[in-house]
Amino acid sequence: MLFVASVAYLLGVRRVRRGGEPWPVRRTIGFFALGLLPYAVIELGFLGVYSSELRWAFSTRIALLIFAVPAGIAAGRPLDLVPSALRERVLASRVTRIFGNAMVATVVIAAVFCLFLTPVAGILRVNPVVEASLGIVVPLVGLAMVLPMMALGAVHTGTFIAIEFLLAFVELLIDSVPGLLMRLNDNVLDLIPDATRAVSWWPSTLHDQHLAGDWIWFIAEFADVPILVILMIRWMRSDRVEAKSFDDLSDEEYDEMTRAHLRGER
Fold first, then answer.
1. What is d(CA 3, CA 41) in angstroms, rounded to the nearest whole number?
2. φ and ψ at 118, to 5 degrees?
C-alpha cells in the first residue's frame, strides 16, 4: 500500500506540474512525513507486530489509523491532484456529501470505538486475515471522512458548518465513553483468554484492557483538535464565499432581497 500510494501521489504531482500549475513542496513533504511515514511506523513497528496479541496495541493502532494517518495524508492535498472533472464528480456525489461532514464522522468513529466494548474486537484482533486487512480498510474509512470535510468548505452554508462545529464539541464527550468504560470495567470485554507472554513485562488480560481504554481515551480527545481546526477553516471559507455573493449584488438586487426577506420569502 505504501508503494502504491507513493507512486500514485508522485505521478499526480508530475501531471499537475506538466500542466503548468504550481505544486508547493510543503504539500509533498506533508503527505510523506505526516501521512505515509506514520503509517509505516504504525504498521511495521511495535503496534503492527503485536496488534494481534496485545489489546492496547490493537486499539491504539486502529485509533491512530482512523485519526492520525488520514489527517496527515490530507495535509498533502491528494484530492487536488485528481483531474478537475473527476474531482468535481466525486465531490458532487451523494456518498461524498454524506461522509464529508462532522455529523457522520461522529457516528462512524463512535461506532468503531464501541466495537472495542464487544467480543467483535477480539474476533477482529485474533483473525490474521481480518487483522491484516484492517491496516488498509481503517485508513480508507478515515480518508473518506477527512478529505471531503476539507474540500467541501465552500459548498455547505455557514449555518450547516456551525452545527457541525457544535457537534464536534459533543464528539469530545462521545469519543471518551468507550475508553472510560474499558478502563473502569473489571471484566474482560472481548472474551479472549490470555496469550502466551512473550516477555516479562507482558500485561495481564485485565491490565491490557485498561491500557487499551487509556490510549483510546487519550487519542480520541487529542485527535478532535485537528477536526475542530478543519471545521473552523471551512467556516471561514464559507463566510468569505457568502460575503462575496452579497458584495456582487447591485443596490437594486440587494434592496429587493431585503424586501423579500421582510415579507418572509426565501
1. 14
2. -125, 165
Q: Which three cell numbers stand for residue 126?
A: 485474533
Phi/psi of residue 5, nearest 5 degrees: -65, -40
The 10 Å Cβ neighbour count of residue 9 is 20
The torsion of the CA quartet 157, 138, 4, 50, rounded to 10 degrees, works out to: 150
CA angle 179, 184, 190 (to 5 degrees): 70
Q: No. of H helices and E strands in the chain?
A: 15, 0
The pLDDT tens digits of the residues spanning 238-255 come to 666 666 666 666 666 656
pLDDT digits (tens, 9 = 90+) for 48-91: 999 988 999 999 999 999 988 998 898 898 988 888 777 777 77
d(CA 82, CA 96) in angstroms, rounded, equals: 15
What lies within 8 Å, CB to CB, of 227 at 6+ separation is: 102, 105, 149, 168, 171
> How many residues can be counted in the chain?
266
In DSSP notation, 155-215 reads TS-HHHHHHHHHHHHHHHHHTHHHHHHHHH--S-SS-PPPPPPSSTTPPPHHHHHHHHHHH
pTM, two decimals, is: 0.78
DSSP, res 1: -
d(CA 227, CA 223): 7
